[in-house]
C-alpha cells in the first residue's frame, strides 16, 4: 500500500510540482501532515499550513498561487477537494477490503437466493424465503432470519442479528453486533405480581441509506412496524423501542434510547445518552442535548432541548447557571432574613 | 398467511355476522383497523371505534348489542378478549416460526446431551458437560460454555453468549447478543498505578420465566452467584454487575445499569437508563424513574424515586418545578436586596 | 472439583490444625463461609469472623494466635493472603477452563498463522494476513478481520468483532460481543438535509494488559488511530468514539460513553453511565462520578467531577443539597417578600 507521487498524480490527472518519486503510504490532514503522507488544500483558511506541513505531497487547485516558500510537493488538479475525496474512496476500498464471493461453510435456507455479485462470509446464516438484492455483503457470523428483504448494496457486518420479516432498503450499513427486530418490551401485570408476555407480532422496516451502529438494538413492533426512515444514522448502542418511528435524516448519537411508540421527526439531531419517554412526539428539526431526558411531546419545530426533564436550551442553561451558584443564593436569602430580623429590633 | 373470515370463525368457534369470504392477512387494534385486518372489541370504551373502523372483521362478545350502523363483519364468540389472544398466539407461531431439529454444522461438546425435541441452529456451539432440558431452542451462532444447565422450554436466540457454569431455569428467553456470565469488573489498584485483576470465580443463576433483552450483559459473581429471580424481565442493553441480586417479578427498562453487589427487591419497576450504585439495597415494590441515579440504600417499600441523586418522586418534582424557575427566584432575591438597600437610605 | 484439606495444605505447603480429611468444594469470604468451603484470614479486622465462621477450613498466617475457641480447621502458611491468591488462581483455571488446540470448523484466511500453543474455537474466523502471538485464545464465533495484530497471551472471547487493521498488545482480554474498530460516527450535512458519510480510514490501537468489557464498542479513527493505552480497563457496554485516546491505567465503569476526539488522561477513574463531549481533554487522575456529563476541558489534575454539566464534586454536592431544599428556599423568599410588603404599610 505504497504509491509514488507520480502514480497518484496519474490517477487524479494532475500535474506535479516537485519530487515525483516520493513514496506515499497514507492520507493526512494538512495541519497534521507527516512525511510519507499526502494531504490537500481547498479552504484558504488552511493555506498557512501549506508552508509548514511535513506532508510529502499536497493536492491543490490548478489556480492556487502560493505566497511563500514551502517544501512539500504539489499536485495541481481542477478541484483539490474532489480529487482528495476520490483518493479517500480508493484508499477506503483498500483499507476496508472489497469482499466478494461465498465463503464456506455458510448457510442459506430454502427459498432464499442471493442477488448478483454477493459476499457471504464463512459462518453467515440466512434463513428461508429471503430476498437479497444485488451487491449485498453479509459478513461472517451475521444472522438473517426468515422472510427478510434486503435491498441492493446493503452491508451487514459480522455478528449482526436480523429477525424474521424485517424489511431493509438499499445502501444501508449495519455495524457489528447490531440487533434488528428482537421482541419489544411488552409485559402485562397480572394480579399475582407476575407478568404475562404480550406477543410482539410486528416487524422492523428500514428505508434506504440508513446506518446502524455497532451493538445498537431496534425492537419489532407489537403490531405493525417499527420504522426507520431513509437517511437515518444511529450510532453505537442506541436503543429503539417497539413501534417507534424515526423521521428521515435524523441522526442519533451513541447510547441514546427511545421508549416504545415514540415518534421522532425528520432532521432531528439527538445527543449521546439522551432518553425519550414512550408515546411522545418530537417534531422536525429538534435538537436534543447529550444525556437529556425528553419526557413529553413538544409541538414547535426546530427547538433545542436540554436537561432532565428536558427544557428549552436557553431556559436550561439559565437554570443550570444559577444551580451552580445555589449555595450563594441561599446565603443571600439568609442574609436578607438576618437583616429583617435586625430591623425588627 | 391469508385466511377467510370463515376460516377464522371456524378456528374460534364463533358466529359470523356479515361477509364470510373476506380475506384477512393481519391483526390490528380496532382504532387503527385497516382493510384486510381483523380486530376485537372487549372494553366498552372502544365501542365507538366499531362504527368507524376500517378493519374487515371484528371479534365481539356473543352478548354485544350494537347501537349504531357499522360496515365491518362481526365474529361473535364467548369472550372476544380470550379469542383474540388465541388468534395472537396462532399468528405468533406463524410469524416467529417454530424451529425444530438440528441444523449442520453445529457443535456439541463431550458429555453434553440435548433434551427431547430440541432446536439447535447451524453454527450454534454448546460446550462440554451441559444439561439441556426438553423443548429448548438454541438459535444459530449462540454460544453455550461448559457445565451449563438450561431448563425446559428456554429459548436462546442468535449470538447469545452464556459462560461456563451458568444455571438457567425453565421457560426463559434470551434475546440476540445478550451476554451472561462474563467477568465482573474487579481490579485492585497497585502502588505503581496499575491494576491487578481479581479472579471472578462465581457464576450466574437465572430462575424460571426470566426474559433478558438483546445485548444485555450480566456479570458472574466474584464468588458465589449473581442471581436473577423468577419472572424478572430485563430490557435491551441492561447491565447487571457481579454479585447483584434482582428480586422476583422485577422489570427493568432498556439501558439501565446496576453496579456490583446491589440487591434489588421483588416487584420493582425500573425506568430506562436508570443507574444504581454498588453495594446498596432497594426494597420491594420500588419504582425508579428513567435516568434516575439511585445512590444509597432505601428502607421503605413501595417508594417512587426520581432524579440524580434519586429523591422521592414528590420531592424531586417540587424541586424540579422550582429549578425551572430559578432565574425568577434569583430575580426575586435581587429585588429584595435592592429594597433593603433602599430602605436603609 | 472436590479436594481434602490435606490436599490443599500440601499444595500450599501449610500445616493443618484440625480435621485433615474434610472435603472442600469452593472458596468463600470468611464472613460468608459455609460448610464445604475454604476461606482465609489476613486483615485482623476480620478476626472475629474466625470464631463464628461455618467455613470448613481457614488459611491463616503461621504467626496467628487465636484469642477464642473456634470450630473450623486452620491451615497455617507463611502468608495467608498470598496462599489464598494462589488457590484462587488454581481454582480459576479449573472453573474457566484452559482451552487449547483448534476446533473444527474454524476459518483462517490466507497469509495468517497462529502463534504457538493457540486456542481457536469452532466457528471462529480470522481473516487474511493477521499476526497472532503465542498463547492467544480465540473463542467460538469470534471474528478477526484482515491485517490484525494480536500480542502474546491475549484472549478473545466468543462473539468479539475485531475489524481490519486493529493492533492489539499482549495479555489483553476482550469479553463476549465487544466490537473493536467499527466506523466512527462521521456524517457531513448536505444542503438537502441528507448526510454524506465521511470515510473512516483509521484504526484502533490497543496496548498491553487492557481489558474490554462485554458488548463494549470502540470506533476506529477517521484518520490515524483511536488509542487505548496500557493497563486500561473498560467495563461492559462502554462506548469509545473515533480518535479518542484513553491514558494508561484508566478504568471506566459500565455504560459510560466518550464522544469523538476526546482525550482522557492516565489513571482516571470514571463512573458508570458517565458521558463525555467530543473534542475535550480530561487530565491525569480525574475522578468522574456515575452519570456525570463532562462537557468541557478541565486543566487541573486529580479533580473529582460530578453532575451534568459536571462540576467539582464539592460544588456539585453543595448545590445538590440545596436543590433538595429548593421548595423551602422558595418559601423563605416568599416570606421575605410578604414581610417587606407588610413593612411598607
Automatic annotation (TrEMBL), chains A, B, C:
Among its keywords, does the record have S-adenosyl-L-methionine? no
| Reaction catalyzed | a UDP-3-O-[(3R)-3-hydroxyacyl]-alpha-D-glucosamine + a (3R)-hydroxyacyl-[ACP] = a UDP-2-N,3-O-bis[(3R)-3-hydroxyacyl]-alpha-D-glucosamine + holo-[ACP] + H(+)
Keyword Lyase applies: no
Gene3D superfamilies, sorted: Hexapeptide repeat proteins (2.160.10.10), MurE/MurF, N-terminal domain (3.40.1390.10)
Entry EC no(s): 2.3.1.191
Alphabetized, the UniProt keywords read: Acyltransferase, Lipid A biosynthesis, Lipid biosynthesis, Lipid metabolism, Repeat, Transferase
Q: Which residues form the active site?
A: 242 (proton acceptor)
Any one annotated GO CC term? membrane
**Tell me, which GO biological process terms does this entry list?**
lipid A biosynthetic process
Q: Can you name one GO molecular function term for this protein?
A: N-acyltransferase activity
Q: Where would I find the UDP-3-O-[3-hydroxymyristoyl] glucosamine N-acyltransferase non-repeat region domain in this sequence?
A: 22-89
Pathway given for this chain reads: Bacterial outer membrane biogenesis; LPS lipid A biosynthesis
Cross-referenced Pfam families: Hexapep, Hexapep_2, LpxD
Instruction: Say which enzyme class the record assigns.
Output: transferase
User: PANTHER family in the record, alphabetically?
Assistant: UDP-3-O-ACYLGLUCOSAMINE N-ACYLTRANSFERASE, UDP-3-O-ACYLGLUCOSAMINE N-ACYLTRANSFERASE 1, MITOCHONDRIAL-RELATED
What does the similarity note say? Belongs to the transferase hexapeptide repeat family. LpxD subfamily.
Oligomeric state and interaction partners are given as: Homotrimer.
Q: What does this protein do?
A: Catalyzes the N-acylation of UDP-3-O-acylglucosamine using 3-hydroxyacyl-ACP as the acyl donor. Is involved in the biosynthesis of lipid A, a phosphorylated glycolipid that anchors the lipopolysaccharide to the outer membrane of the cell.
What this protein is called in its record is: UDP-3-O-acylglucosamine N-acyltransferase
Amino acid at each position: 500500500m505504497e504509491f509514488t507521487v507520480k502514480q497518484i498524480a496519474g490517477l487524479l490527472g494532475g500535474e506535479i510540482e516537485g519530487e515525483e518519486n516520493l513514496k506515499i503510504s497514507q492520507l493526512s490532514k494538512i495541519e497534521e501532515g507527516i512525511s510519507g503522507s499526502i494531504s490537500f488544500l481547498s479552504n484558504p483558511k488552511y493555506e498557512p499550513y501549506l508552508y509548514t506541513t511535513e506532508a510529502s505531497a499536497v493536492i491543490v487547485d490548478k489556480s492556487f498561487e502560493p505566497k511563500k516558500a514551502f517544501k512539500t510537493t504539489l499536485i495541481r488538479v481542477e478541484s483539490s477537494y474532489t480529487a482528495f475525496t476520490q483518493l479517500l474512496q480508493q484508499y477506503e476500498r483498500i483499507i476496508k477490503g472489497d469482499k466478494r464471493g461465498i465463503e464456506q461453510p455458510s448457510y442459506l435456507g430454502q427459498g432464499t437466493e442471493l442477488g448478483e455479485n454477493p459476499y457471504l462470509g464463512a459462518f453467515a446464516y440466512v434463513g428461508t424465503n429471503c430476498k437479497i438484492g444485488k451487491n449485498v455483503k453479509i459478513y461472517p457470523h451475521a444472522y438473517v432470519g426468515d422472510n427478510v428483504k434486503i435491498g441492493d448494496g446493503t452491508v451487514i457486518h459480522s455478528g449482526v442479528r436480523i429477525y424474521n420479516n424485517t424489511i431493509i432498503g438499499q445502501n444501508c450499513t449495519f455495524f457489528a453486533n447490531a440487533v434488528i427486530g428482537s421482541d419489544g418490551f411488552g409485559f402485562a401485570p397480572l394480579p399475582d405480581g407476575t407478568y404475562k408476555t404480550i406477543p410482539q407480532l410486528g416487524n422492523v422496516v428500514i428505508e434506504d441509506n440508513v446506518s446502524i451502529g455497532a451493538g445498537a438494538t431496534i425492537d419489532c413492533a407489537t403490531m405493525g412496524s417499527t420504522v426507520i426512515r431513509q437517511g437515518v444514522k444511529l450510532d453505537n448502542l442506541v436503543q429503539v423501542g417497539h413501534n417507534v418511528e424515526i423521521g428521515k435524516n435524523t441522526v442519533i448519537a451513541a447510547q441514546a434510547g427511545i421508549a416504545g411508540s415514540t415518534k421522532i421527526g425528520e432532521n432531528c439531531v439527538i445527543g449521546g445518552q439522551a432518553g425519550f419517554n414512550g408515546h411522545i412526539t418530537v417534531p422536525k428539526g429538534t435538537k436534543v442535548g447529550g444525556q437529556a431526558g425528553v419526557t413529553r411531546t413538544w409541538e414547535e419545530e426546530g427547538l433545542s432541548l436540554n436537561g432532565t426533564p428536558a427544557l428549552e436550551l436557553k431556559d436550561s442553561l439559565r437554570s443550570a447557571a444559577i444551580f451552580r451558584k445555589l449555595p450563594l443564593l441561599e446565603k443571600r436569602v439568609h442574609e436578607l432574613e438576618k437583616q429583617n430580623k435586625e430591623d425588627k429590633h
